[in-house]
Amino acid sequence: MNKKITAGSRQAIIDIGSNSIRLVVFGGPPRTPAVLFNEKLMAGLGRGVVATGQLDPDAVKAALAGLARFAVLVDLLGSVPVRVVATAAVREARNGAEFLEQVRALGLPAEILDGDAEATAAGHGVISGAPDADGLVADMGGGSLELVRVAGGQVGERISLPLGALRVAEIRSSGTGKLRKRLRELLAPLDWVHDCRDRPLYLVGGSWRALARLHMAQTGWPLPILGNYSFPAGDARTLKADVRALGNARLAALPGVKTNRVPQLDDAAALLVALVAELSPDRVVISAHGLREGLLYEALDPAIRALDPLIEGVRHAVGSACAPGAAEALLCWSDPLFEGEPAGHRRLRHAAYLLSETGWTSNPDFRVIEGEDLALHGNWSGIDGEGRALMAMAQHVGLGGDPANAPPILTRLASYQSLSAAAAWGHAMRLARRLTGNNQAVLGLLPLRMDEDGTIVLALPARMAALINTGSERRLVQLAMASGREARLELLD
To answer: Rounded distance, CA 477 to CA 39, Å?
Structure first.
């Protein structure tokens, strides 16, 4: 379990929850691990705990059968780090310790996460995929609801509350308004929770991800990627009404909604409405990362934690296609053109420059299309739909496309102003490649600057004047026009 994690190594987590038991095998770079294998068993351990205080015998039998399979799969992985954690149902059940011994007898190093550890891991999971998260995390499982304050890349105050999906159903069955009343009672002494008003509410959990799929379907959202998808907090009430109006059969038919989640959606929507009413967040943000990713993040060295997940993920995907330091050289070379750009745009520009190197491994006839598609649909962390659209526009232009013919989806995801800026990123890519023969390492010899009057100036040593031809002049003019500026050349002695 404490084996050192290195790039490319595998690691496994078995998460024994109140609803499901899941084995996930991760690989790839430590800061942005990719899921190599993911198998879920719906054991329903928490049902018996809510009703009787004990794990139901049939649920235990099903759980142990599934865990026996997982144990064999883990054994076949060889000497990889493995962590086996049990959460609310097992820690609260009177026969939880007995069950855990049966799990250990299978050769699995099972442990119980207490409420504080579960909440901490949920908070770290959100931070792992959204390092600038500043608000309240709400992780709803079958047996508990973890609330966690996150800000500045750190987990702050946190608590585990008895408001998992199974308990919400029980509370609501006792009468109208009972859930809101119970939530208000539990939140009353938590000043730090109320201090998160007008900040995002970050949702973790399968039922809430299913609600996000419903929101996407109802609003016609064109990019079906959950990570960092957000919507106004006031839409929670509409979602609750939509769950009731559609019914289980139509909900199960929605893209990405698992059939076994559908029966919980009404209760999940009710809890979300209650949370929004009590906490007044400005928006709801869906986290694709949760407890499992948080446990991996907690095990990282601080220096690796500090890395940007988007940049690391793209860098890993690009691999040997990108010469070391090439994207960074292009980033620094183009910086004078984008001084004063909106917060967060420089990292997107950096990621776009890294990603553009994969274009030259594509079939030339599909280079632009593949670049756009990878930007929009790649398995990236630390980015939302708007960011993906900006990267896609940069790929479209940088790999030779006309901005006027960019995919229509981009205008659904980002503003015209932001897309225009991203098109300029792409024009900078094209100019740099033309000037250097795609050898960005020498860009420092050909500095760009912005004069006081806003003119873009490309300076070249006189001995390199022959680099300027009709093609490079045209690309310089295109870059200037994309930025709404004039351009000129300057030869240096």
So the answer is: 53
Q: What is the pTM of this model?
A: 0.91
Q: Which of 147, 154, 150, 262 is nearest to 206 (CA)?
A: 262
Contacts of 410 (CB under 8 A, 6+ apart): 389, 392, 393, 419
The 448-450 sheet, strands edge to edge? 448-450, 456-461, 487-492
Pairing mode, strands 230-232 and 487-492 = unpaired
Phi, psi of 466, rounded to the nearest 5 degrees: -65, -10
Rounded distance, CA 215 to CA 203, Å?
Answer: 14
Least-confidence region, from 231-240, 250-259, 274-283: 250-259
350 by Cβ neighbours in 10 Å (0-12 / 13-18 / 19+) ranks as buried
Task: Kindly report, residue by residue over 427-441, the tens digit of the pLDDT.
Answer: 999 999 999 988 888
Q: How confident is the model at residue 166 (pLDDT cuts 50, 70, 90)?
A: confident
Q: Which residues contact 19 (CB under 8 A, 6 or more apart)?
A: 42, 43, 44, 45, 46, 141, 142, 165, 166, 206, 264
Q: What is the CATH number of domain 309-492?
A: 1.10.3210.10
Tell me which residue of 431, 416, 423, 366 sits closest to 391, measured CA to CA: 423
- Give the whole-angstrom CA distance, residue 217 versus residue 214: 5
Query: CA nearest 311: which of 361, 373, 355?
Result: 355
| Long-range contacts of the stretch 474-479 (C-beta < 8 A, 24+) | 475/427, 475/430, 475/431, 475/434, 476/431, 478/427, 478/430, 478/431, 479/337, 479/424, 479/427, 479/428, 479/430, 479/431
CATH of domain 11-112: 3.30.420.40
In CATH, the architecture of 116-292 is: 2-Layer Sandwich (3.30)
Distances (CA, A) of 11 to 82, 158, 380: 6, 27, 19
User: CB neighbours (10 Å) of residue 409?
Assistant: 16
E strands, 120-229, are 135-140, 145-151, 154-161, 201-204
